[in-house]
Amino acid sequence: MRLAPTIILLFLCSLSFSQSPSDWWYFGDQAGVHFTATGPVADTNGVMVTYEGCASVSDAQGNLLFYTDGTWVYNAQHVIMPDGDSLLGNGSSTQSAVIVPYPGNSDKYYIFTVRGCTGGSTTGMLGYFFSYTVVNMTLESGLGNVELAQKNIVLFDSSAEKCTAMLHANGSDIWVVGHEQPTNKFRAYLLSSAGVVDSVFSEVGPGNNNCVSYMLASHAGDQIAMATTTVDSVYVFPFNQATGEVSTPLALEVDGIVYGIHFSPNDELLYACYNRINQFDLTASNVQASRFIVDSISTHGAIAEGPDEKLYLARTNQQYLSSIEDPNVYGAGCNYIETSVDLAGRQCRLGLPNNVAPGLFLIAAIQYEKVCVGDTTLFSMDTSNVDAAQWNFGDPSSGGANTSAAYFPSHYFADTGTYTVRLIVQSDTIADTAFQSIRIYPRQIIDLGSDTTICSGEQILFSAAQPYAQFLWQDSTTADTFLTSGESLVRVSVFGRCDTVMDSVMISYDDSLSFDLGPDTLLCGGDSLRLGTGNTNSAVVQWSTGDSVETIYAKVSATYEVNVINACGSVNDTIEVTFKPVPSSILLPADTINCFDNEIVLTHANIDSVTYIWSDSSSKKNYRVDTTETVWLAAFNECGSVIDTINIIFNGEIISELGDDTTICDLDTIVLDAFSPGAEYLWSTGDTIDTILTAQVSQLYV
Fold first, then answer.
1. Closest CA to 93 of 276, 272, 322, 354
2. Lower Cβ count inside 10 Å, N or C end of the chain?
3. 384 and 501: one domain?
4. Is the pTM of this model over 0.85?
5. Which of 190-194, 230-234, 319-323, 337-341 has the lowest mean pLDDT?
6. Pairwise pLDDT comparison (90 vs 466), residue with the higher score
């Protein structure tokens, strides 16, 4: 609908519920404002183009959820929701939508839409629908979507471009109020956790010219202010929050039409604007007489209250917002600023998000951190407008520690698992409950084991599997298992909710064992036999001798056994090694003379592996000699043979005769022979042979 020949108005209503739900505004020609701890700053991410109304909502932490112009619904990524098109709002409706939380379900929101007064059927005001649609924020992976079963549900026809909302007297249900056109009928619809459950109609106030301009509830919810664009008046209606009834209004005259209207944060002052900003003191004995002109130079559109409890005014076709910095102050002290919020090149139009009473609705929202077993979990909440809180941590085994009345409590969960935490927040008249599933996660652990050797051709499947974790192996694969493919260093990093841990293990390969100690072996005394298993690398070697080396030397007769074990298995082998002595070269005693006529007994050693043969061809143990005889003894085996001889003389009387004394001539010689069998000799000359030659004159003896 047109206000005047020079402008076209598009109207939209929205509802902010506390400081956080109104942190993000989107309006005008892709304009946006983000309210931060240091004040409002321009945001240029918005894609919505609307000349007037707009509605947006954030969660209790101030994160944008969605925004709408009454026809399209945009998610937090500034994309139209899959089913967020063709809502029954209208581009030329003052308050074409109001966003209201769904009582009893913090994941859902109502969007009430108003079609407008400039289109529809040709019969009266039919076709000007007052409807609602439900948005479910659990859909589309948390980005939200419209529930098709609750989309464009029409409540009545012939609606003015007005809607507002306030709390029921019970502190949990919500009234949504619309107005018919061209009558004086208010329609109040009651929302509970069961949905739209009741409606109350009140016929009061002016009956005509109510189509365009704002209608807004006070912060307390007990008053409704309504502006018109064709009558130089604004109206303040009492509202019964228990029954939904609207009563006879207070009419306040202004000069010219009024488009935007808003209560001060303390509900004591009323602001109404279009070609001037009017201020009324609602506590004055004569409210009409309290009228104060805040500004009469500029033309303003909608008035909206920010989370900072300042009032912001739309400046049509300008790249900034105006503001009233101290709206609870009567008169010039309210501190009006013409150029207040720069929009970074984006243009404002006539409308702003129509925020009703920041903090009007409590939102119980649970925030938490530290969710690893062994930690103490820290909880927090939005304390705006909260007078009391009651926590239940869903952990009855913790006894008295299971509940808390603190705003920022902590709780120790002794075990992993999922716990349902409940938070109830209360103010004087309002209460809200939130439930949050808290998962306490296990600590990340990893143990690939010790360095390992396996048989060539085999593989090992390593597993790092554990819940709520991601994995990175040395080859950049990310599965929770890894299959070895060769000798290598296997390494894995585990990134979990609680920890980042790493482990590594060296994988080596063994070849199949194969060795042979050889056949049983006969060796001669003094020799040795090298016994070995070959190159067994990391194998465990155990000999029957107690040795644990690859190679030993057999030096004594025995059965030698070795057991070799590696990753491929075990191999056992034995060998019989027999050592035979080399026959001794001294088998018999020295030659001897028996002067006593007794027999001599010769005996050979008793060595099983040696064969003995006497000179009489016998192999007897003892050989008896009773007469002069040369005896030999032969000894032989595989290692060799020897023969030893002994001369034995019996009756060995020494007979030696040098003859008579003899005279010889000079230069002659004489041979003296003292031979006697078996005798040893010593001459007076010192000689030790049996015969000497002499040429000297002397006395010789032997």
1. 354
2. N
3. no
4. no
5. 230-234
6. 466
